[in-house]
Write a structure and sequence with these properties.
Low-confidence stretches: none
Distance between the termini: 57 Å
Shape: flat
Number of strands: 0
Mean pLDDT: 85
Helix content: 10-25%
Order of helices and strands: H
Structural class: little secondary structure
Strand content: under 5%
């Protein structure tokens, strides 16, 4: 059976209204609801960066020893 994907908007009333025709009546359907990520405006992005900048200052990420690299023969 083919999947049907629709996008709808939930208003301030917080009610999700879904209306869609189905091909086969009198059967069970499984419906999955997933919120789409909200796109940030430039101002929201700048505010997010400013809010989180330096959040790991007390627990800095350190790069550990990388070990010795294998020496390979040159390709001729």
């Amino acid at each position: 059976m083919d999947a049907i994907t629709i996008q709808t908007h939930v208003g301030k009333d917080k009610i999700l209204k879904v209306e869609m025709p189905v091909e086969i009546p009198d059967v069970d359907y499984e419906v999955t609801i997933r919120a789409l990520p909200k796109e940030m405006s430039r101002d929201e992005w700048v505010a997010f960066v400013n809010e989180t900048y330096g959040s790991l200052a007390d627990d800095p990420i350190e790069r550990g020893p990388q070990g010795e690299y294998e020496v390979r023969d040159e390709i001729e």
